[in-house]
Every structure is written in C-alpha cells, then in structure tokens.
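Handout for the seminar on molecular recognition.
Each group receives one record of this type.
Step one: identify the two inputs.
Step two: read the structure output and locate the region that could contact flavin-adenine dinucleotide.
Step three: write two sentences on what you found, then compare them with the reference statements printed after the record.
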Amino acid sequence: MSFPGESIYWHEGQAPARGVETGPPAKVDVAIIGAGYTGLSAALHLARAGRHVAVFDAEAVGFGASSRNGGMVGPGLHKLGIAGLIKAYGEERAVALLREGLNAVDHLEAFIAAENIDCDLVLTGRFRGARTALQCDALLRECDWLRDRIALPTYPVTRAEQRSEIGSDFYRGGVVYERDGGVHPRKMVLALAERATGAGVQIIAPCAVTGLRTEASGTILHTTGGRVDAREVVLATNGYSDRRSPAMNRRIVPLETGACAVGPLTPEQMADLSPKGRMHGESGRVFMWYRPTPDGRSFIFGGRFGAGNMGPEARQRAYRKAICRVFPQLENAPISHFWSGLIAMTADHSPHLGHHDGVWMAGGYNGSGVTRSLYFGTKLARRMLGEADAQTAFDSLPFNPVPLRPFAPWGANMLVRWYQMQDDRELKARD
Ligand SMILES: Cc1cc2nc3c(=O)[nH]c(=O)nc-3n(C[C@H](O)[C@H](O)[C@H](O)COP(=O)(O)OP(=O)(O)OC[C@H]3O[C@@H](n4cnc5c(N)ncnc54)[C@H](O)[C@@H]3O)c2cc1C
C-alpha cells in the first residue's frame, strides 16, 4: 500500500507526451503556468490558433489534481445549491449558471469524441443517496426544479427501489443524474498533453515559475530554467497556487482532499456494490463520493474526511468507517492505495475565469473541476483570441480575493469539522 501520495492511476495510461523536459524558450506569445486540464486545454486551443505557447509545470504533466481526482464528470451544479444560487444572483442568473454545467458536459463529450481520446469516458449516470428522509425530500424538490428549469435529465429513486442502484440499505432513497459519468483522469490529462504538443505547444516540466513581472510590452517570467518573455500569461495552478502565483493564490483557498482505492474485488462484488456501474455520491455537508475504477476491478472512495493533518493510521480508520457505514460488506476488503491532492475553494463558492492583476486565469473549481476545467480552459483561450462563443455565464461574477486569506485554510478545516458534527447529529437522529 502506498501513502501518502500514490494515486491508483499513476502507473496506468500512456507515457507522458513527447516534448516535455526541454529547456524553456526565451520568448513566447503565451506562457501557461500549470500542466493540468485547465492549462493544457487552453494551450491546445491557443496553439491551434497559431500562438507560440509554452506550458510550465513545477513537477510533471498532470502532477496536480488532474491525475489524482476521482474522474467523476457531470454538470456539477453549484456548491451554493439552488436556493443559495437564487438568493445570491436571482433566478434568471441562477438558471444561466446551472446551464453552463450542462454545456460543460456537452463540451467534454464532444471534445473527447472529436480528438479521439481514449480516456474510458462512460456516461453511466450518478446515484446520489439521501442520508435522511428530510434530505431525500430536498433532493427530490431540487430534482423537479432542475428538470423543469434547465432540462437536466434526472429521476427519483425510492428507498424500496434503491437496491437496483446500490448494494446498500444505508440511504433513504435518492436521485439519479443521467448526464454524469466518469473518465480515467490520468489518461485524459496525458492525452491532452499529447494533443497539445502535437499542435506545437512546448511543455516544460519540471520547471517552476518562481516569479512574474508585468511590463508594458508583456510579462517577464523567472523560472527554474531561466528567464522567459511572454506577451500574455495564464495562471492554471488552481489548488497548487502559492506565493509564486499570487494573483490566483489570493483568490482561492487550497484544501487537501483525499481518496482511496478498495480492491482488487471480484466481478460479483463489483456488481453488488453498483449494479449499473454508476458513479455515486450522497447528501450531507461532508459527503463521500465513490465509483468503480475504469478497469472494473476496484472501487474508489473519496471526500474531505481522512484528509488534513491526520496521520496514515487515523486516515485509514476514517476511510474504513465511512466506507463500512454504506457498505458493511467491505469490512475486510483490502485498501490498495491512499492518496490526496489539493483543490481550490473560492469565497463565493463559484469557479472563475477572466483577467485579473495583469494575467489571465481560470480555476477555483471548489472540488468539481474535471468537466469544468476543460471547458473553462477552452473558453478562456477563446476569450484571449477574441473569438466568438467565448462567453460564459460566469464571466460577470467578480473574482474577489478571499478575506483574511492567511487564516482561511485553518478556518475552512474548522468549518469542515463543524459540518461533520452536524452531519453526525442528523444521522443519529434519523429513523
Ligand atoms: C483527490 C481528488 C479527487 C477529485 N475528484 C474529482 C472528481 O471526481 N470530479 C471532479 O470534477 N473534480 C474532482 N477533483 C477536482 C479536480 O481534479 C480539479 O478541479 C482539476 O483537476 C483542476 O485542474 P487544473 O488543471 O485547474 O489544476 P491542477 O490539475 O491541480 O494543476 C495545477 C498544476 O499547477 C502546477 N503549478 C503550481 N504552481 C506552479 C508554478 N509556480 N510553476 C509551475 N507549475 C506550477 C502544479 O504542479 C499542478 O500540476 C478532485 C480533486 C482531488 C484532489
């Protein structure tokens, strides 16, 4: 078993694209910092439009969340929930923001097909279980609203029908979101890198950008490989932003989130856990997500529990407890991998894209960025090029710095604990 870092995906997928590990060019049209989905999708679009593009990653292609995530794709909805969104922006804008989630899935599906990318995309749907009867009622109301207002394909599952979705009696019914599914995250990021280098993008990794200075003619980047002059810069560092990427860093709160793989499991066990091979989630404030691996031999579980400052044993216990609450039949199943990565939270719980403090940026996906980052990377590139169809409903949302930023990670971790306590209380009180 590997800890703390090795994602189950890391030894799968093709070798990194050719063109990495070359030295940085002295001059480029666009320098992109971060070789994950956001940076690479922007790079690909810009290079195909004739721009000379270099992508820098401090570590390796896909080192960040883009090869550590669960690979669950879908419209993603919004962290504020429907009521929260309407309260913050009014109903019309809420509808427009939510529709972007569906646009992003359409984009992902079309892009993967057009590029002929082998990343195990399946749109098998997601079953979201309700932990309490009250939460089930709320989910069903949301489900009706989403069907009516944004034509999201979704349907309710009663407690009596639940065994057709999941090998568990833990939930009080739930909802199926039919436009959700999964990809193999590492295959997807490596294929993006391959397409980008094929289009002429130079990927330079490992090579950290250690500082930026904006001048009238462009930006000077200081990198561990030397100086680079760029006409424009894109920050695609998301949860891996730090003092070296201050414009993004002051606008997001990086948080650690973890995952583990349980397996290998037999085909019978896999079919028992998820009879339809769906993605899975649940209601609640600190929730667990889980899915079968693309090879159908293991299950991945993830969430905000078992991350943060916990040691390996405590982390393993937290995972086992959360998993066995839903699937007691996995009590003795082997946990083969544990890993974690960084996500980026924002003050308004929305992802953002735009031009701030002299640089372009896209990020702040609040933990749901696989579908969104590919979409935002492409939209950002379109905007930089002045192309038609560059707009998104997110363009007009101000991307404000996080108040009291140095204390925000601590505050966010405290909030997670508080939420967890409330979740536990509700679970104890349920019938
Ligand atoms: C455990 C886990 C599970 C997740 N599961 C899901 C899921 O199932 N579905 C979903 O939608 N989302 C999920 N996410 C979120 C999703 O993975 C991210 O939103 C998405 O990958 C963000 O992509 P990105 O390209 O913006 O950033 P990243 O992939 O994080 O890339 C940022 C890159 O920037 C580089 N970098 C940072 N600073 C510098 C510098 N100074 N110089 C050079 N390079 C630098 C880093 O090395 C890193 O590679 C998950 C995240 C984690 C951690």
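Reference statements: The chain has ten helices and 18 strands. The first strand starts at residue 27 and ends at 33.
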